[in-house]
TrEMBL record:
<keyword id="KW-0408">Iron</keyword>
<dbReference type="Pfam" id="PF00814">
    <property type="entry name" value="TsaD"/>
</dbReference>
<dbReference type="InterPro" id="IPR022450">
    <property type="entry name" value="TsaD"/>
</dbReference>
<feature type="binding site">
    <location>
        <begin position="137"/>
        <end position="141"/>
    </location>
    <ligand>
        <name>substrate</name>
    </ligand>
</feature>
<feature type="binding site">
    <location>
        <position position="170"/>
    </location>
    <ligand>
        <name>substrate</name>
    </ligand>
</feature>
<keyword id="KW-0963">Cytoplasm</keyword>
<protein>
    <recommendedName>
        <fullName>tRNA N6-adenosine threonylcarbamoyltransferase</fullName>
        <ecNumber>2.3.1.234</ecNumber>
    </recommendedName>
</protein>
<feature type="binding site">
    <location>
        <position position="118"/>
    </location>
    <ligand>
        <name>Fe cation</name>
    </ligand>
</feature>
<feature type="binding site">
    <location>
        <position position="305"/>
    </location>
    <ligand>
        <name>Fe cation</name>
    </ligand>
</feature>
<dbReference type="InterPro" id="IPR000905">
    <property type="entry name" value="Gcp-like_dom"/>
</dbReference>
<dbReference type="GO" id="GO:0005737">
    <property type="term" value="C:cytoplasm"/>
</dbReference>
<comment type="similarity">
    <text>Belongs to the KAE1 / TsaD family.</text>
</comment>
<feature type="domain" description="Gcp-like">
    <location>
        <begin position="26"/>
        <end position="311"/>
    </location>
</feature>
<keyword id="KW-0808">Transferase</keyword>
<keyword id="KW-0479">Metal-binding</keyword>
<dbReference type="GO" id="GO:0002949">
    <property type="term" value="P:tRNA threonylcarbamoyladenosine modification"/>
</dbReference>
<dbReference type="GO" id="GO:0005506">
    <property type="term" value="F:iron ion binding"/>
</dbReference>
Length: 336
């Protein structure tokens, strides 16, 4: 129903975002105010600074989202907001803003799980996509395989035991002297390197496990760089980037395809910031073609944090009566 307009706010990490979506799937506006330049000089997100920036940005960003969509607040059917997982102080800013708007207007409030939001970005990007499918969510904070049985029915298949895939990209980039966020930097550098140059470990692949582990890989890259330095050997940055990236991608691809087969679905959905990785997209496309699985992933803007995906998720919750009350609180370690 395109008359149903959802406004959403996303402040879980370092982007302040607000969006208006019609009928759950049509983006009317998706304003993203990135704090990347602010955090770059510290080599990563500084939580306290993120919270303060969200406070400055949240109301102007909401205003801009409504204005660009050409709708008044009174026309909104539901207000969605990310309440976890994420940085507690950052989440609280969005939650407080959404609660204030809901309280002042009487518009229903819908608390949204950020990971579910990432998955739902695919509904915005692909009009024909419907559950059931298996989703691989790969971001700075998460690496999870999720069975999406229906719009409001999920089951966690497996997740990382330690570092998230994006976290591994960011940490490896940092030791290589590349700026934050490191994922896109490694992606670019790797294009000129040989992915078979260095044999970095692929964890937990032998067993039929749907869990991931990336901290050993991160240490292996660190050891490789340290040893080369001690021996005075020159290393090819491009080869290190390509070989590291290949190790991450191999594991992600094999487990995602395995999960789709195990759950007997012929659709696989890729989501989260790392979904923008060019090698992951290429290798997963190849593997899915081979296995007769249809692969979906969003464009770059909808891969990384944005409020449109939260508005989409909020729509489907709202339609099934899954609304929140004004006691909604931030839950930093919220599970799927
Ligand atoms: O989903 P997202 O914007 O925020 C979280 O919810 O964490 O994901 C950000 C993560 C960062 O770790 C960033 O380095 C990674 O996604 N990323 C990439 C690429 N673009 C973003 N990693 C690998 N290749 C990329 N092209
Ligand atoms: Zn995210």
């Amino acid at each position: 129903d395109n008359a149903c307009l959802t406004l959403a706010i996303e402040t879980s990490c370092d982007e302040t975002s607000a969006a208006v979506v019609a009928g759950g799937r049509q983006i009317l506006s998706n304003i993203i105010s990135s704090q990347v330049p602010v955090h770059q000089k510290f080599g990563g997100v500084v939580p306290e600074i993120a919270s303060r920036k969200h406070i400055e940005n949240v109301i102007p960003v909401v205003d801009e989202a409504l204005q660009q969509a050409g709708v008044a607040l009174a026309q909104i059917s539901a207000i969605g907001v990310t309440y976890g997982p994420g940085l507690v102080g950052a989440l609280l800013v969005g939650v407080a803003a959404a609660k204030a708007l809901a309280f002042a207007t009487g518009i229903p409030l819908v608390g949204v799980n950020h990971l579910e939001g990432h998955i739902f970005a695919n509904f915005l990007a692909h009009a024909e996509l419907e559950p059931p499918f298996v989703a691989l969510v790969v971001s700075g904070g998460h690496t999870s395989l999720v069975s999406v049985q229906d719009y409001n029915q999920f089951a966690l298949i497996g997740q990382t035991r330690d570092d998230a895939a994006g976290e591994a990209f960011d940490k490896v980039a940092r030791v290589m002297g590349l700026p934050y966020p490191g994922g896109p930097q490694i992606d670019r550098l790797a294009a000129a390197g040989n992915p078979a140059a260095i044999d970095f470990p692929r964890a937990l692949t032998g067993k039929s496990s749907f869990e991931f582990s990336f901290s050993g890989l991160k240490s292996a890259v660190l050891n490789y760089l340290n040893q080369a330095e001690q021996r005075g050997q020159r290393v090819s940055q491009a080869d290190v980037a390509a070989s590291f990236q290949a190790a991450v991608v191999d594991v992600l691809v094999s487990k995602a395809v395995q999960a789709a087969r195990f759950y007997s679905v012929d659709r696989l959905v890729l989501a989260g910031g790392v979904a923008a990785n060019s090698m992951l997209q290429a290798k997963l496309t190849g593997a899915c073609t081979e296995q007769d699985i249809r692969l979906y992933y969003p464009g770059a803007v909808l891969c990384t944090d944005n409020a449109a995906m939260i508005a989409c998720r909020a729509y489907y919750q709202f339609c099934s009566g899954k609304v929140s009350d004004l006691y909604l609180n931030a839950v930093p370690s919220l599970k799927i």
